[in-house]
Amino acid sequence: MNLQIEDIRVDFVTGSRRISNFCWAFLLLSGALGFSSVGFSSYLQKNLIPFLSAEQISFIPQGLVMFFYGIAGSFISFYLWCTILWNVGSGYNRFDKRKGILSIFRWGFPGRNRRIFIQFFIKDIQAIRMEVQEGFLSRKILYIKMKGQQDIPLSRIEEYSTLEEMENKAAELARFLKISIEGI
């Protein structure tokens, strides 16, 4: 989502609260609970869940391993649910031509450095750079190329579903800042 008023443009960045993260967290939690219940059922030699049979599974080593897989899955699921709750990675990119400042804000993990706020001068921006890697694990990322500094990512890896969408976003931003685009 973008907001543009005369000399100010704000691009909002979606963080961890994406449908894919909700799906992965739910699948991991349900799989972990299934593994833990089968492992615990093998210890008790009794089926705790009717459709998950544990009668043929001996507790040592199979039941114990399944129980620990369930615990490990629970921890990973808990981590994902926490990042969703804290909305890690969300924020905005604010381009203020009046003040000549680019402000990048992101939410991080709780603690002393939860708020990540970085400012640059717009006059130091050389170009908008597009990085596109097609294939099984495709990447489409927009960067701001700065004078004498490392390139700064403006988007997540999976933010753009099509190349056309990414090119339009880069063109809008380049027009607003009156700079060139690299990597097309």
Give the strand tally.
9
Q: Report helical residue fraction.
A: 25-40%
H/I helix tally: 3
Q: Strand percentage, roughly? A: 25-35%
Span from first to last CA?
23 Å
Order of strands across the main sheet: 1-2-3-4-5
Give the SSE order as H and E letters: EEHHEEEEEEHE
Largest sheet: 5 strands, antiparallel
Any idea what the shape is? elongated
Give the structural class: alpha+beta
Measured on Cα atoms, how large is the radius of gyration?
A: 23 Å
Mean pLDDT: 90
Task: Note poorly predicted spans.
Answer: none
What this model shows, in words?
This protein is of the alpha+beta class and 184 residues long. The protein contains 3 helices and 9 strands, in the order ββααββββββαβ. It has helices at residues 19-44, 59-86, 163-177; strands at 2-5, 8-13, 91-96, 101-107, 115-121, 125-133, 139-146, 152-153, 180-182. The strands form 2 sheets. Strands 1-2-3-4-5 form a 5-stranded antiparallel β-sheet, with no helix packed on it. The chain has a 4-stranded mixed β-sheet with strand order 8-7-6-9, covered by helices on one side. β4 and β5 (115-121) form a beta hairpin. The longest helix has 28 residues, at 59-86. The protein is elongated, with a radius of gyration of 23 Å. The two termini are 23 Å apart. The mean pLDDT is 90.
